[in-house]
From TrEMBL:
It comes from Nocardioides seonyuensis. This is GNAT family N-acetyltransferase. It comes from the Bacteria. SUPFAM superfamilies: Acyl-CoA N-acyltransferases (Nat).
Amino acid sequence: MPGQQALRPATSADLPSVAEIYLAARDAAPMPPTVHPPDEVRAWVNTWDLTRCTVWLALEDGAPIGFAR
């Protein structure tokens, strides 16, 4: 049974989790592998300026499980 689910705007503190979700989704997708190594993807996500773009974070039992940008 699913736990408590919620959506909220992401904060800069959430960006490391967003990067991990992004990498996991890319690994699971039936597409060619990314050309950037995971550390570069993590660094790129951490540069997202949340004052200029909105990122929504999906949570289950308080843990990030997805995002939309």
